[in-house]
Design goal:
With about 190 residues, this protein is α+β, with helices and mostly antiparallel strands. The chain has helices spanning about 65-70, 80-90, 90-100, 105-110, 115-125, 140-155, 160-170, 175-190; strands spanning about 5-10, 15-20, 25-30, 40-50, 55-60. The protein has a 5-stranded antiparallel β-sheet. A hairpin with a 2-residue loop joins strand 2 (about 15-20) and strand 3 (about 25-30). The radius of gyration is 20 Å and the shape is elongated.
């Protein structure tokens, strides 16, 4: 299996790029070809997909994208090309947050994903991701910290709170009770209650 590819981009096509690896052109499917430039150096984590009629290579600049892709292709009804299109429309961190917060509406908005597949993604992948730190991970709001502790005491898992954290951690105008009510309302709406 080919774990990664490193070399210069020699061709950019509609869905693929061709990477020159020691004078051998390796065609790699990528989520967005416009992020690559001719003759630029690239390092891609890769997944090799073998079918009866083809051997395809899928590449990712980021290891988190690779991890999310590998989990997506294990969901019934999602193949490698569909998973790549999904990641092209939704960054890996956002995808993890949508899954962990049961955001079916966000998942349904992705290309090729209907209600049934969105529910299947959440069912199969929720809780499977290690907490993925976001770029602004630190929260100094003590009210959010108390609210989070209360939600965990009510039986919610920490990874379920990832999606609402973005909306609530910067709200300094709320006390703990108000924030807790707001958090429960957001969770209920996302779950369709």
């Amino acid at each position: 299996m080919i774990a990664f590819v490193s070399g210069k981009v020699r061709l950019i096509r509609k869905e693929t790029i061709v990477v020159d690896v020691q004078n051998i052109g390796i065609e790699v499917y990528v989520s967005n070809t416009s992020q690559y430039q001719l003759n630029s150096e690239v390092f891609l984590y890769t997944y090799q997909h073998v079918r009866e009629d083809a051997i395809l290579l899928f590449g990712f600049k980021d290891e988190q994208d690779y991890d999310v892709f590998m989990r997506l292709i294990n969901v019934k009804g999602i193949g490698p090309k569909s998973a790549l299109n999904i990641l092209g429309a939704c960054p890996a961190q956002e995808m993890v947050e949508a899954i962990e917060s049961d955001d079916i509406k966000r998942l349904k908005s992705l290309p090729g994903i209907g209600a049934k597949t969105a529910s299947q993604i959440v069912l199969d992948l929720k809780g499977k991701f290690v907490s993925v730190p976001s770029k602004n991970e630190t929260s100094t709001n003590p009210v959010w910290q108390e609210c989070q502790e209360a939600l965990i005491a009510l039986g919610f898992k920490a990874n379920q709170l990832t999606g609402i954290k973005k909306e609530l951690q910067d709200r300094t105008d709320l006390n703990t009770d108000q924030m807790l009510r707001m958090a429960l309302n957001i969770i209920a709406k996302r779950n369709g209650v």
